[in-house]
Specification:
Blueprint lengths: L3 H4 L4 E11 L6 H4 L8 E17 L4 E6 L5 E4 L10 H9 L5 E7 L9 H16 L6 H16 L6 H8 L2 E8 L4 E7 L4 H7 L3 E5 L9 H10 L4 H19 L3 H18 L6 H12 L3 E4 L7 E5 L2 H15 L6 E2 L10 E2 L11
Parallel strand pairs: 3-5
Antiparallel strand pairs: 1-2, 1-12, 2-5, 2-6, 3-4, 6-7, 8-10, 8-11, 9-10
Helix pairs in contact: 3-5, 4-5, 4-6, 5-6, 9-10, 11-12
Amino acid sequence: MNFKPILEKKTVHTSVPCRVDFGGTLDISTFFMPLAHLKPATLNLALDMRTHVRLLPWQPGRIKISSRGFDHMERDRHDYSVDNPMGLMFAVAQFFNARGIHIVIDSSSPPRSALGGSSSAATAVIAAFYTVLDKPVDPKQIAWLAHYIESSVAGVPCGVQDQTAAAFGGANLWEWGFGDTGPKFNQLPLYDTDKDLEALNRHMLVAYCGIPHESRDINGKWVRAFKKGGVVSEFRDIIQITREFTSALKDKDFTNAGALMNQETRIRSKMTPEVLDNTGKKLFEKAEELNCGARFTGAGGGGCLWAVGEMDCIDALRTSWQDILDQVQSGLILDTAIDARGIQIHDTENNNHSNK
């Protein structure tokens, strides 16, 4: 479909949040299918470091993608290769048979931060296509579509928690399973009121450990070990700990929540010591010392850590973490908060964009 004539009349603009998480990996079918009797679940908290996507007109028959922090890429619509940094975004464009379009992605989260950035971007791009096509923006449908497109590009089973956080926002426990017609998730909000959600911000902290120096296939290692039956008991324990952690947050027992967080991190670290890089280890140890919990985001191996604790403990941890991060290039404590909003469709604008 040639989107150029439509986009010459209006600019489509969408945005979605990124996330921190607990109990990740359980959203991958390799894990939640054989462990279905234990009701696997993942907790994630959407963050207001949003990814914005704009669709602009471009040259007929061409697709261009620009993303902050990456070189822009442009190609003919008949080029189906996805083995490149923008492969996931090109795959989304291919799904919609798009041409004559320029996809502009602007993420406010740091590069390679393990906050679900690429999945969030894909979710926002799909929402933008739904908008320009005047299709209903259904968060559940968009989350699943983003998941399946990402899995097709990766060529291996992928999780869906990044897409649900982006599509729905807020703080939720997601239960993974299989329904009458296919895989499904159940959304269980952490709190009933926005006031409780906002109060949680005073009990948490998110730190960026700097750009990871190398890519580590930690999720892949967990998948391979699980398929061999080597870490089944560990993931059974993680299911239980995830639910106990969620209950502690609901009860506002942040001391117990921190202890459970550290317990889960230690289990993961025992399976794959590289889940915490050198900076991550220092941040984790300091959190334990100050009676807080800390956990890596995503599959770890660099990126971000987030912490939970009582307010006075979090305040002390903020100072200590800052001292550690001052010694790390590009490391910093992120100025972020929980975002109750999922997919947002912003006002469209009339425009007269050129094709240059």
